[in-house]
Specification:
The chain is 34% helix and 19% strand. The protein is globular, with a radius of gyration of 14 Å. It contains 5 helices and 5 strands, in the order βααβαβαββα. A 5-stranded parallel β-sheet has the order 2-1-3-4-5, sandwiched between helices. The chain is α/β, with parallel strands linked by helices. β3 (67-71), α4 and β4 form a beta-alpha-beta unit. Bound molecules: 1,3,4-trihydroxy-5-OXO-cyclohexanecarboxylic acid (DQA). 1,3,4-trihydroxy-5-OXO-cyclohexanecarboxylic acid binds next to loops.
């Protein structure tokens, strides 16, 4: 089973960026450990600060991944283009957020992605990604894949 993780702008700074909100672990350190706890999953990981590059990646992964875990970060709240890309692919897509966006500024309460994804996991810190992996694995089993 292949799972793609796609991270949007400023998530390359995890660990250094607003540690009170996002924690003090880099995504790379977290990801290394997560990979070890799911030895049967073929993961790939992509991060970009550029909206069009994220759209390209969603299109590229859209038919070859069994599931995409997407944290579009700030573009979640602004991007019709990323929402349209999600709508145009076959893979299941889980929207994740590290922080509880609903307990933050009101502009973070709106997501252009939530209406077009298969599920949403919000506010569990980096564990949001692990929960998304587990949900994709469960779903694949139910479908008998
Ligand atoms: C975020 C929440 C967004 O509002 C913010 O712009 C981010 C990270 C999160 O994972 O909590 O960059 O997506």
């Amino acid at each position: 089973m292949k799972i793609s993780i796609i991270n949007g702008p400023n998530l390359n700074l995890l660990g250094k960026r607003e540690p009170d909100v996002y924690g003090s672990t880099s995504f790379e350190d977290f990801f290394e450990k997560m990979i070890l706890s799911f030895p049967d999953i073929d993961f790939d990981y992509y991060q970009s600060n550029i909206e069009g590059e994220l759209i390209n990646q969603i299109q590229d992964m859209g038919d070859s991944s069994d599931g995409i875990i997407l944290n579009a970060a700030a573009f979640t709240h602004t991007s019709v283009g990323i929402a349209d890309a999600v709508k145009s692919i076959k893979s299941r897509v889980i929207e994740v957020h590290i922080s509880n966006t609903f307990s933050r500024e009101s502009f973070r309460h709106k997501s252009f992605l939530s209406p077009v994804v298969d599920g949403i996991i919000v506010g569990f810190g980096l564990d949001s990604y692990r929960l998304a992996v587990e949900s994709l694995i469960k779903d694949n089993k139910i479908k008998g894949v």
